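Hi V.,

Quick status before I head out on leave. The structure for the redesign project is tokenized and pasted below; the design run finished overnight.
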């Protein structure tokens, strides 16, 4: 009842979505494009919706057998739990039974995990990672009168031993009434060359909602995360590997009372629970990206029945059935607020609307290749960090993403496809297969 109710309102959003599709299509036509999807994808690595779709269908084909296996494993678990020979698996069963299966397999207690990650220690972990990889240090900076928008805000400066001050980071980490509810990075000021002798330092803000209380880009337009939409998520996906690697975690994850370093066995259980239904989650992300491309693509026309289109796509591209009368897509905010501005505002501003959900999947594939080829052997190496900085991070959008990626790891990170660029999925596919091998015994 809760699932159906939650996925069938608000009805008024049907008309809002229809108007959005029509307005975007009109904008694209005015700009000389066949669809809004083409208008958005053209300046990026993919270059065309056709290239995006071919990549998504390739990913869908790769993951389907494993996702079907996970679906059957969940179904079998439900059958045993209910004591019935024949059961149907409904979409609302997923969260319930997968949580039970993870608990049964790994006996994880969220409170125990959290006890090793007090916020202060996590900030120390950030400082450790920055110093180990890039040789830079964070220092607290007093806030000037009127500079802060709330007393909780902290200000840090980033210092390099040879290059000096490199920029500033505001941390607004605690939840409070009326605050933006997500977790995001916002560019306040981009780095840029002001003159031959003067450089404007970049300023960013990291906004979260935790409980409690000189080789530089010359132009602000290309600074930081002002990059191709389907490249922008790559660094954050890469650093997620660091957040799960025990060699990194043992350097800062300590019990908030005893100071005990997080046990390796606990981290392995966390990793196992994360990977247990990885194919199902990946299949869902592929489905979302396909819906995103389809609703704002050339062939949708003037149809108002987006629900039927989405329902058909769910049956085609996932292991799960569609529940009649539900319309999850009218509540999917990524259709509205994902993306970067084409004309130079920060990628993180989320102030322009893009058909860019596929870029999350591009980033996963690029990050998997970079991790395996460059970072995995010695993730905290200063040499590794220097390579990442000089070949990728310092350039922002001032160099072509494909050139930077090839320069970073050489062959095997991307492919040219019908005039566009797609990630090579080999490393990511190997990673998924490794997860399969680890989970097969548990699921059976």
């Amino acid at each position: 009842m809760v699932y159906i109710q939650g996925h069938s309102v608000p009805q008024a959003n049907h008309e809002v979505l229809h108007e959005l599709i029509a307005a975007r299509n009109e904008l694209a036509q005015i700009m000389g494009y066949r669809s809004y999807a083409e208008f958005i994808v053209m300046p990026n690595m993919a270059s065309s919706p056709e290239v995006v779709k071919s990549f998504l269908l390739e990913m869908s084909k790769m993951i389907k057998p494993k996702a079907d296996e996970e679906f059957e494993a969940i179904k079998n678990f439900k059958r045993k739990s209910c004591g019935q020979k024949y059961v149907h698996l409904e979409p609302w069963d997923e969260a319930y039974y997968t949580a039970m299966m993870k608990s049964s397999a790994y006996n994880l207690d969220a409170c125990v995990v959290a006890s090793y990650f007090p916020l202060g220690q996590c900030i120390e972990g950030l400082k450790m990672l920055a110093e180990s990889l890039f040789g830079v240090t964070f220092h607290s900076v007093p806030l000037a009168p009127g500079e802060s928008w709330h007393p909780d805000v902290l200000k840090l400066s980033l210092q390099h031993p040879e290059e000096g001050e490199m920029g500033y980071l505001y941390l607004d980490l605690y939840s409070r009434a009326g605050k933006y509810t997500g977790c995001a990075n916002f560019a306040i000021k981009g780095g840029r060359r002001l003159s031959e002798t003067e450089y404007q330092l970049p300023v960013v803000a990291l906004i979260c909602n935790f409980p409690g209380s000189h080789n530089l880009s010359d132009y602000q337009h290309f600074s930081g995360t002002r990059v191709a939409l389907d490249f922008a998520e790559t660094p954050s996906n890469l650093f997620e590997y660091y957040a799960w690697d025990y060699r990194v975690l043992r350097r800062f994850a300590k019990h908030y009372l005893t100071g005990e370093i997080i046990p390796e066995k606990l981290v392995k259980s966390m990793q196992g629970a994360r990977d247990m239904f990885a194919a199902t989650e990946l299949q869902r992300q592929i489905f979302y990206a396909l819906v995103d491309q389809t609703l704002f693509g050339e062939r949708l026309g003037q149809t108002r029945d987006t629900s039927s289109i989405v329902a058909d796509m769910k049956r085609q591209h996932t292991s799960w059935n569609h529940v009649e009368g539900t319309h999850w897509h009218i509540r999917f905010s990524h259709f509205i607020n994902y993306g970067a501005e084409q004309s130079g505002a920060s990628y993180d501003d989320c102030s322009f609307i893009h058909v860019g959900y596929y870029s999350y999947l591009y980033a996963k594939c690029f990050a998997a290749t970079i991790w395996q080829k460059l970072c995995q052997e010695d993730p905290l190496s200063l040499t590794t960090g220097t390579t990442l900085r000089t070949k990728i991070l310092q350039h922002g959008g001032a160099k072509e993403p494909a050139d930077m990626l090839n320069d970073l790891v050489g062959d095997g990170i991307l492919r040219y496809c019908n005039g566009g660029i797609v990630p090579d999925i080999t490393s990511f596919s190997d990673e998924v297969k490794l997860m399969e091998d680890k989970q097969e015994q548990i699921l059976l």
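Above is the designed sequence. Residues 49-82 form the longest helix (34 residues).

G. will cover questions while I'm gone.

Best,
W.
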